[in-house]
């Protein structure tokens, strides 16, 4: 009888100890899960104060009013339904369409010729489009951003979730882009910052500031 009572007492003691241990394991697991979730949440949360420490900005990494720098003519016409004016003229030094849209240019105008320095039947005409305080260029197949003023437009760097507009001050810009070198211009109250598209060419985005505020952005190409 005593042996039976002892066995029952031992069984209940072990059962209580086991339940106590399981509760501790569950609490520890909850704590770990909570801490891990917090870390994941912190990583996923976008940081609007990111620091962009590169001297290069790829054209695919910037949006103008939420739109890509290069779009098809059809897409452009669906975005900008009101055109202020257009101007077609010969670009004597060539145009970036020669390499940005080379396949279509060859298909439409033939191969490049050494004597003309351009595509066989292409006369060198490029059309400039003005709308919404932005200047675009087109070869009538794709449309390329040229210059945009900040008073009506915004410029976003996708990789770092940084948006620049008319409210962006020179001080804020230099804080977000610590490695960008400031260049003086012909105007005393104006400075600019240059970000090359890649390490091979001199083509670049130029950010101009006037009286301490972002004034306009230009996509500049070395043609001549």
Question: Quick gist of this model?
Answer:
31% of the residues lie in helices and 29% in strands. The radius of gyration is 30 Å and the shape is globular. The chain is of the alpha+beta class.
Could you characterize the architecture of this molecule?
- The chain has 224 residues and is α+β, with helices and mostly antiparallel strands.
- The protein is 31% helix and 29% strand.
- The strands form two sheets. Strands 3, 4, 5, 6, 7, 10, 11, 12 and 13 form a nine-stranded antiparallel beta sheet that branches. It has a four-stranded antiparallel beta sheet with strand order 2-1-8-9, with no helix packed on it.
- β8 (155-157) and β9 form a beta hairpin.
- The longest helix has 43 residues, at 2-44.
- The radius of gyration is 30 Å and the shape is globular.
Poorly predicted runs:
2-12, 36-46
Q: Termini distance?
A: 108 Å
Radius of gyration: 30 Å
Could you tell me the number of beta strands? 13
Helices and strands, in order, run as HEEEHEHHEEEEEHEEEE
Helicity range: 25-40%
Strand content: 25-35%
> Helix segment count?
5
Determine the structural class based on helices, strands and strand pairing.
alpha+beta
Oligomer: single chain
The largest sheet is: 9 strands, antiparallel
Q: Mean of the pLDDT scores?
A: 84
Shape, principal axes of CA atoms? globular
């Amino acid at each position: 009888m005593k042996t039976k009572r002892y066995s029952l007492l031992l069984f209940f003691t072990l059962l209580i100890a086991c339940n106590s241990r399981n509760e501790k394991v569950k609490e520890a697991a909850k704590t770990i899960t909570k801490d891990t979730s917090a870390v994941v949440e912190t990583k996923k949360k976008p940081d609007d104060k990111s620091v962009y420490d590169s001297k290069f900005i790829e054209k695919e990494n910037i949006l103008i009013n939420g739109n890509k720098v290069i779009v098809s003519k059809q897409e452009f016409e669906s975005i900008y339904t009101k055109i202020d004016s257009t101007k077609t003229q010969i670009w004597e030094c060539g145009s970036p369409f020669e390499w940005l849209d080379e396949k279509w240019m060859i298909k439409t105008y033939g191969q490049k010729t050494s004597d003309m320095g351009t595509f066989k039947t292409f006369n060198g005409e490029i059309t400039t489009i003005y709308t919404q305080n932005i200047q675009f260029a087109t070869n009538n197949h794709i449309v390329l951003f040229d210059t945009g003023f900040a008073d009506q437009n915004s410029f976003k760097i996708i990789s770092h979730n940084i948006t620049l507009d008319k409210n962006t001050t020179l001080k804020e810009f230099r804080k977000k882009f610590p490695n960008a070198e400031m260049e003086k211009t012909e105007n005393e109250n104006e400075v600019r910052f240059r970000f090359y598209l890649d390490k091979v060419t001199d083509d670049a985005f130029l950010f101009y500031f006037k009286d301490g505020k972002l004034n306009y952005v230009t996509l500049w190409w070395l043609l001549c």
